[in-house]
Amino acid sequence: MLYIYSIGEKGREKKEGAYCMKPRSPNITLEEGAAPLLRWYDACRRPFPWRETNDPYAVWISEVMLQQTQAARGVEYHRRWMRTFPTLRSLAEAEDDDVLKAWEGLGYYSRARNLLRAARLLQARGLDTLPASFEELLALPGVGPYTAAAVASIAFGLPVPALDANGKRVFSRLLDLEEPVDRRAGEKSILRAFEQMLPADRPGNFNSAIMELGATLCAPTSTLCGECPLEFLCLARLRGSALERPVLSRQTKSESLEGILAVFVSGDRVFLRRRPPAGLWANFEEFPWSAPPAEQESPLTELARRSDADCGGEVRCSFTKWRLRLAVRIVRLYVPGDLENMNGRWASPSELAAATLPAGSRKMRERLFGEGTIPPPPPS
Known about the structure:
Blueprint: E1 3-4, E2 13-15, E3 18-20, E4 28-29, H1 34-44, H2 56-65, H3 71-84, H4 88-92, H5 96-103, H6 110-124, H7 134-138, H8 145-156, H9 165-174, H10 184-197, H11 203-215, H12 235-239, E5 255-266, E6 269-274, E7 285-286, E8 289-290, H13 299-306, E9 310-319, E10 322-332, E11 344-347, H14 349-354, H15 359-371
Parallel strand pairs: 5-10
Antiparallel strand pairs: 1-4, 2-3, 5-6, 5-8, 6-7, 6-11, 9-10
Helix pairs in contact: 1-11, 2-3, 2-8, 8-11, 9-11
């Protein structure tokens, strides 16, 4: 059994240059944190639409969306998705391009492709809902241990700990864990504590409460310990080390790159390049760009560099470890056929508006319409 020690009646006592904690009597165990955490969650949780349902499909969609998207930003995307694809069957029967369009703006498009693959796989098995088993959920395309545990606990009430970055941060502070949380030993310590605190009667709400706590009161660079329902358990709070936790063995550093984004204009049409069928943003359309080594030069960007082009300012965007600053070159062509062998197409304003574009090209599309470089599409 894991015990959490608190400051005694006389406060902290100095011993050999360090603070030692006197245990309360009786000692506090992690299990005692579940009830106050759930009371706090019931009273203070943010009213997101996916929290108003136990529908396995809706829960699954929300968990996949929120893997790389802040919850507040994901609300409208989730509502739009559920209007477009309200059931597992409607998703399984959807066209690939329609699914990617619905996902536009969320990034990491492999998530949308895996949702579609999983839905079609389940439909092929004759299922109209997700399986009610952690192991079966884990076997679906794109579903990792966290997503499987979240769906299993929230939708099906299974007592499985759903451990994401928020959970690791919360428990690393509760335990004042000095082990790196991205190493096996650190994660095992956290899982052991998580399993001890996880209640059998409300596992889904408990998992959601841990995520909510990490997203609000127990954030990466700030804490609101005085409002936290687990303050009485938290060793890092008592020792003043909350902002030193969690410990990570490695940090991924972003790298800044400069490059070019080329906009070829002919009349009211612009040229969209089709990306290769494999790799980053596979099969997506975009404005040609380059920023080695993230994206190598192409004949299109070389042409834009050599042409008598207009300066269109710059576009900034980020993906994976790259932070890009792209100088925009607007090239006006009077013979559109000059690009006919460049693996792309000339798009009208309405076609451009309907295209699914990566972030940098999407920003450029908004600028072109807003500044009148090309006319906006007619109202639908």
